[in-house]
Amino acid sequence: xxxxxxxILFYLAVxxxxxxxxxxKDKRAAIHHQWRVPESVLMFFGxxxxxxxxxxxxKKIRHKTKLIxxxxxxxxxxxxxxxxxVWLFLTIGF
Length: 94
Hints:
By secondary structure, this protein is an all-alpha fold. It has helices spanning 5-31, 39-61, 68-92.
């Protein structure tokens, strides 16, 4: 089942970059009092695979680090992602 590894890595790279870009865009919008990226959109991008990149970006640029929703929610999503990857590894033998 090694044919699945490259598409999964590609997907994770794309969603991670998109999540980091959205986080930076939201930070810039907050500074300039412009339209913000909704928190639900940020959390959705974390849920579909960008949680790690988003958490790192948020800590690096000091954005939303006081919000429990993100500082607790994103690590929970990361644990969920690890669990899914472990399950896939054990089930289909990556």
